[in-house]
Write a structure and sequence with these properties.
577 residues; 19% strand; elongated; alpha/beta; 6-stranded mixed sheet; 20 strands; Rossmann fold; homodimer; 2 domains; Nitrilase/N-carbamoyl-D-aminoacid amidohydrolase
């Protein structure tokens, strides 16, 4: 009976926190020993955190990472470990260290370096060349990293066709809504194509604009999910792998001898490396059954926003956050997310009514803070606004009120929130959604002022869904129904409505998705059933707002293409779609 | 006598301005015909502008680029043209179209794609494979693109060893101080190593954070500069190339048959393609002699700032700019640059005195505006400041005045400048220098508020040099001597000096260069002769200000590593150098 007890440590690392990351790794090793785990894995770049970006150019960063790796090696007696780290030879590599019983057995170098979307790995890493297959007694093991497994004729296949029965992929795969399904489908295909068990160890946690959702998976050689890590939480996933079943299945699988795949395997430089001659012992108590489940939309997105907010605030050393509350749905949702991320006592709401604020909005902000149990400061801006208008009177003589006066209000609010931040050390959370960010329906240095933009990548129509989802969680309503029901307004002039400036969000959002996320052109979007005028206007708004987005705070990516480094457009451009 | 009259059109293209770029290209073709030019070249991606970034993901952008290319082909009767464009086969390529007499002869694909510093070309382009050598009658010509020529055993060498006597490199090489010398040295080496004439056609103009400085060069087979384009200006460089001299030199050059280079050439897939069988006629009037000269520092940096500002403002459709004038040297220099870029009538200065502004500063701002001939608005902020302090009184009860009150002032000024921008359509230029940007000695949404940060990459010590340089240009002093002589101060509290918070700039700047641009660690910088405490403090200031820089407006790169996409650091990081 060839069996292997695997443990996948789905930990939440922090970039550059070598001490903290080491602690988490050593704690998982201790836990794994107690559970009789033979082989323990960690996520991609677990030693230094992911993605380290240009910190990789600092030689001392790489050196500390290697020092930390050595400490982990020293502490690995009696267990086999796969851990992500940076390796330095003549150049640097995104690597997986294979450690056994106090000894560094080998270091695998990532072969497929992603350089699209949010990724810049060609900027940093050399491409790995070797495709090792490890032997743990009579079990063949292949190790590769993240992107490597997404290619049909990649390292996993070469390893399988060279004797690997268990393929371990250590990963740092950023979340977007729906990505879990795509990953599972791909992993299932890879497992069945290679008739191999696949253990996919993903990272969990927030890092600037990215949330890694964990959701690690083990699939058997039939492509069936046999174990799964929690989503958006740390976890240690333990499973007993029936390696004998892989052998039997390969004997009976006609596809296993496909010529083309064999050729691919032959093209690779396969090294055969023995980790240990000693077989894992199997007088182990069996594992308790584990429930498999994946969160469903919009719960999943909501959890991503909570984790992303929590980690940005905490990893950057903040305790409390402050949020401007307009009584609208965006700020109400952000406040609820902040409460779930940080606790009500760490969230301060600020109402800053102006002469154009409706009494309903002020009441809604109050009701919200009572419902979610946060402190509310009320700081009216009327007098400050008057002093600006008075001061600018001479210069503005002969001009009609326009967007200038609206922006002054928004910027007074930004200044007040920043003053509270400066005085009390609270981080300002901004409340703009993706529909606004896309169209520039925001004030730079006004409502855009703050450290973290929680719902920056959430289209307005999804904001409504998330608010309703949040309300469905507790026994009583958190976000007042009137907030959800009233027509959206910036309330910067009398009787203002968002629809004065923008198409209704039910029309705007699909146009934005097509234009921003799918690179569709005007004609293609019109063919989806929208008017030419509207589509043209929206495209122009998106194009001409690039300068605002360039100065926007970071926020959590939850769609396949977020603004930020996921979408890099010039400000200076005369191109009209 | 084998001779070739070459013309290099050093034009200022705009990203996505297909119509405008085509016009410039066709105008240059007309001019070239009149001058009897046989072979006319254009910069890298001249058709679509450089760098187009994620616009390349829009199929319509690529399609319009090909349409424009076809128009250029149609208009090429009687001349040979090399022009940069995007080519689309199964994927897209950074390409050079070779056009002759109304016919597209071939398209070369760039082989070395830069993916470091400000460059992301692996994100977009496939790597070229072929290394063609073209025949224009009996003259061998190699064409390659920008990065291709920086590699010793790259396409240029393969082409030379396969019969190319003239190597054309079309380029879009961004400026930083001193880069011209590096380019000339490299091109000279490449010319002598390959015993070939090298014609290097660089782009000119500003695009967001980059300035392309032109400075195109032709070097003969001995590595001597025989023609050179203007720096920071459009130009058409014309030269008669003595190709016969290359042949003679090769006969006599023992290095020419070096084995290793021959091998390199053989490894490449060299295609031999005939452009035309007809030799260029040589009853042409000879060219007037051309003065060779390169600007010297700091004139060069000053010109880069002028061009970068001019192009950002004009290409984004602005007419006028507005600048907050503190009476300090940073804002004075920016105002002078703006005047040189846009003309005095397009620059508005705004003095916004507070209770902490010294009378000297107000007088200095006035004197500056009189000297450079721009309008000055004076908008005191005392009353607005009072209304903020009054409004926040209750919330701030029991706290001592601190940086909060200083930031409120800076943000009031930001709000006023943005209000003028909104009301009158003026672009706000910010005035922060690189030393401040590095250390976070700036107020987010305050003095950082604006569309373009002219001297963002200029260290403070260089700001002084540039101010003195500017003053040396005219008959009389532009930037008042008192501005240059007084100790720098933000004037946000009584008797404030920069040195209250920062080390003197003569010490700070070399530390910043070592830490930011050279990735030196604390120990290495201390060994340069600075105190451990000071270096540690500066490094911490740089590390913890990343969040501010992330929201900074774009500004002109003039050093080897600017903040922005040249240096991509996480905000969330626990790494301490």
């Amino acid at each position: 009976m060839r069996r292997l007890r695997i443990g996948m440590a789905q930990i939440n690392t922090t970039v550059g926190d070598f001490l903290g990351n080491k602690k988490k790794i050593l704690r998982a090793i201790d836990e794994a020993r107690a559970l009789g785990i033979d082989l323990l894995t960690f996520p991609e770049l677990a030693i230094c955190g992911y993605p380290p970006e240009d910190l990789l150019f600092k030689p001392q960063f790489v050196a500390e990472n290697l020092k930390t790796l050595n400490a982990v090696v020293s502490d690995s007696s009696g267990i086999t470990i796969i851990v992500g780290c940076v390796n330095a030879r003549e150049d640097i590599y995104n690597a997986a260290a294979v450690i056994h019983d106090g000894r560094l057995v080998d270091i695998y170098h990532k072969i497929y370096l992603p350089n699209y979307g949010v990724f810049d790995e060609n900027r940093y890493f050399q491409t790995g060349k070797g495709v090792p297959v490890y032997r743990l007694a009579d079990i063949g093991i292949g190790v590769n990293i993240c992107e490597d497994i997404w290619y049909e004729a990649g390292p996993a296949t070469a390893q399988a066709y060279s004797g690997a029965e268990v393929i371990i992929n250590i990963s740092a795969s950023p979340y977007h809504a729906g990505k879990g399904d795509a990953r599972r489908k791909m992993l299932s295909t890879r497992a069945t194509d290679n008739v191999a068990i696949i253990a996919y160890n993903n990272l969990v946690g927030g890092q600037d604009e990215l949330v890694f959702d964990g959701n690690s998976m083990i699939l058997d050689e039939k492509g069936e999910l046999i174990a799964q890590g929690k989503q958006f939480e740390e976890d240690l996933i333990v499973a007993d792998l029936d390696v004998e079943a892989v052998f039997r299945a390969r004997l009976h699988d006609p596809r296993w001898r496909k010529e083309s795949l064999l050729l691919d395997a032959e093209r690779c430089q396969v090294a055969r490396i023995t980790i240990s001659d000693k077989a894992p012992e199997y007088d182990k108590p069996s594992l308790p059954p584990r429930q498999l489940q994946t969160m469903k939309w919009p719960a999943e997105v909501y959890s991503a926003l909570v984790l992303g907010t929590q980690d940005y605030v905490r990893k950057n050393g903040f305790q409390k956050v402050v949020i401007g509350l307009s009584g609208g749905i965006d700020s109400s949702l952000v406040a609820a997310i902040a409460v779930d991320a940080l606790g009500a006592s760490n969230v301060v709401g600020v109402a800053m009514p102006s002469p154009y604020s409706s009494p309903g909005s002020i009441a809604d902000a109050k009701a919200l803070t009572q419902n979610i149990g946060i402190k509310l400061l009320t700081i009216p801006i009327g007098e400050i606004l008057q002093s600006y208008l008075e001061t600018l009177k001479d210069n503005f003589q002969g001009t009609a009120p326009d967007i200038t006066e609206e922006n002054i209000q928004a910027r007074i609010r930004g200044n007040i929130l920043m003053a509270l931040s400066n005085k009390f050390g609270w981080l300002v959370l901004t409340t703009g959604n993706k529909s606004e960010t896309a169209t520039g329906y925001t004030t730079l240095y006004g409502d855009m002022a703050g450290g973290f933009a929680v719902i920056k990548d959430v289209p307005k129509t999804l904001v409504y869904e998330l608010a309703k989802y949040r309300n469905s969680l507790g026994a009583r309503t958190s976000i007042p129904t009137s907030v959800i029901d009233k027509p959206p307004s910036a309330e910067l002039r009398p009787d203002q409505k968002d629809t004065d400036t923008l198409p209704p969000y039910e029309q705007l959002d699909p146009v934005l998705t097509a234009y921003v996320e799918e690179d569709k052109n005007i004609e293609q979007i019109v063919n989806m059933g929208f008017s030419l005028d509207m589509v043209k206007k929206v495209a122009r708004l998106v194009d001409t707002s690039e300068y605002k987005r360039r100065q926007a705070p970071p926020g959590i990516k939850i769609t396949p293409r977020a603004f930020g480094r996921d979408r890099r457009l010039p400000i200076t451009s005369r191109f009209k779609s």
